[in-house]
């Protein structure tokens, strides 16, 4: 009987095993995860779960019984330590596991601040997994001082939760503006105003020189010489694809585990999906850190293991929740040369163009702008920017 083993019981791993069964695979399926619980959604970790609005059970992607019901052997709290691609055998913390087809869905690892600048002090947290959030949650008490290092989406979402719960929040961003890596100045301005309106102190264009404290963090010194007191620190300074196992097994790496459009790695019998991969996209190669990508790519891999011979064509989209604002992002803005703003009553959307070509849309509390933008981008259509900017334009008409 064929045995498919999936390493990484996260979003991609869970989607892959479910799709395999759903697609009629009758062999053995094993899903191996290093974390102690069934696969869960990560987005609420910096949103509803951190806020205390969401229970642990609601985080789980499927009830635990699902896996047994589907004949999927779920091994939690089990780490794969090596792959022998010749013998098709894995070494794990619970012994060896043989496979016929292997899927790597190992996700990402958060960047950590070096110990040399205080990154190893107690009270310094990353936001990647449930254990991180469960460890920091008790510190979220009214009046506590939190320093957030990094003004990307994760840092801003954590700042929003902290401000909502009455903490004193300072966020430090080394770049000139928050969201610089991922968004236009217009989007940064929108979120700066939102956070400042909720009392968050934003320090942009200032680096972290070092964290201060003996044993436990007590504050930070910034690159401009100022010192900030903090009861705890959250870092959101980016992630790296988790290529540890793949690299050691001799699998080709290129800004992540390199896969082709079908999800195959450079080694026969080994596939990969989700955050850990880089894959072909519009003549180049990209890596995406998002739930929709993890699900869609993992499902295509499952179908291809079953012989579909299907290419994965990413349709990038993403979201972020901060206070009462839902940001939805369609497309990828890389290479844009202008941004068209569409401002409504309580909503705003920012449309990225390269010449006359629409690349992406950031839509804040503007589900229609998002939906229309996404459909236009996927259809390769680019509306006249003047029409987009005009608040009287019926966006839906642009789809016709
Ligand atoms: P993961 O979900 O990270 O799963 C990988 C799993 O593999 C982990 O459980 C890991 O422990 C396990 N693993 C790794 N190595 C081994 C090994 N050797 N042995 C066994 N197990 C191993 N995306 C969005 O689209 N929208 C959002 O709003 C959003 N918000 C986010 C908020 C936070 C706080 C975080 C952390 C992420 C957020 N993301 C969001 C990103 C999204 O969660 C990821 O893109 C998605 O989880 C990727 O799925 P994955 O399966 O590739 O990796």
From TrEMBL:
Residues 3-298 form the FAD/NAD(P)-binding domain. GO terms for molecular function: ferredoxin-NADP+ reductase activity. InterPro entries: FAD-oxidoreductase/Apoptosis, FAD/NAD-bd_sf, FAD/NAD-binding_dom, FAD/NAD-linked_Rdtase_dimer_sf, Reductase_C. It is an enzyme of class 1 (oxidoreductase). SUPFAM superfamilies: FAD/NAD(P)-binding domain (SSF51905), FAD/NAD-linked reductases, dimerisation (C-terminal) domain (SSF55424). Its cofactor is FAD. Transmembrane segments: none annotated. Keywords: FAD, Flavoprotein, Oxidoreductase. Its EC number is 1.18.1.2. Residues 317-399 form the Reductase C-terminal domain. PANTHER family: APOPTOSIS-INDUCING FACTOR 1, RIESKE DOMAIN-CONTAINING PROTEIN-RELATED. This is Ferredoxin--NAD(P)(+) reductase fdr. It comes from Sulfitobacter dubius. The lineage of its organism: Bacteria, Pseudomonadati, Pseudomonadota, Alphaproteobacteria, Rhodobacterales.
């Amino acid at each position: 009987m064929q045995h498919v083993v999936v390493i990484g019981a996260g979003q991609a791993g869970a989607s892959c095993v479910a799709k395999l069964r759903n697609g009629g695979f009758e062999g053995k399926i094993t899903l191996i995860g290093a974390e102690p619980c069934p696969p869960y959604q990560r987005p609420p970790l910096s949103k509803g779960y951190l806020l205390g609005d969401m229970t642990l059970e609601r985080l789980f992607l499927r009830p635990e019984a699902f896996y047994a019901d589907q004949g999927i052997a779920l091994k939690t709290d089990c780490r794969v330590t090596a792959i022998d691609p010749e013998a098709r055998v894995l070494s794990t913390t619970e012994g060896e596991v043989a496979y016929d087809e292997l899927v790597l869905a190992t996700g990402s690892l958060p960047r950590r601040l070096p110990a040399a600048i205080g990154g190893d002090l107690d009270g310094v947290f990353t936001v990647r997994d449930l254990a991180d959030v469960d460890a920091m949650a008790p510190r979220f008490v009214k009046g506590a001082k939190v320093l957030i290092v990094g003004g990307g989406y994760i840092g801003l979402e954590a700042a929003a939760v902290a401000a909502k719960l009455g903490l004193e929040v300072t966020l430090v961003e080394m770049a000139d503006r928050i969201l610089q890596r991922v968004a236009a100045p217009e989007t940064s301005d929108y979120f700066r105003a939102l956070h400042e309106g909720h009392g968050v102190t934003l320090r942009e264009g200032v680096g972290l020189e070092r964290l201060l404290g003996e044993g436990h963090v007590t504050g930070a010194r910034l690159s401009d010489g100022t010192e900030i007191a903090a009861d705890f620190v959250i870092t959101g300074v980016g992630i790296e694809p988790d290529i540890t196992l793949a690299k050691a097994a001799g699998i080709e790496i290129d800004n992540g585990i390199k896969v082709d459009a079908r999800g195959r790695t450079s080694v026969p019998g080994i596939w990969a999906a989700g955050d850990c991969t880089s894959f072909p996209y519009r003549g180049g190669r990209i890596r995406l850190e998002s739930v929709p990508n993890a699900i869609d790519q993992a499902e295509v891999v499952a179908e291809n293991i079953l012989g579909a011979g299907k290419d994965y064509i990413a349709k990038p989209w993403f979201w972020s929740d901060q206070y009462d604002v839902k940001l939805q992002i369609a497309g990828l803005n890389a290479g844009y040369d202008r941004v068209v703003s569409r401002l409504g009553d309580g909503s705003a959307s920012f449309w990225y163009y390269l010449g006359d070509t629409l690349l992406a849309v950031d839509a804040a509390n503007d589900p229609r702008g998002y939906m229309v933008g996404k459909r236009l981008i996927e259809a390769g259509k680019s509306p006249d920017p003047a029409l987009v900017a005009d608040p009287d334009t019926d966006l839906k008409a642009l789809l016709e």
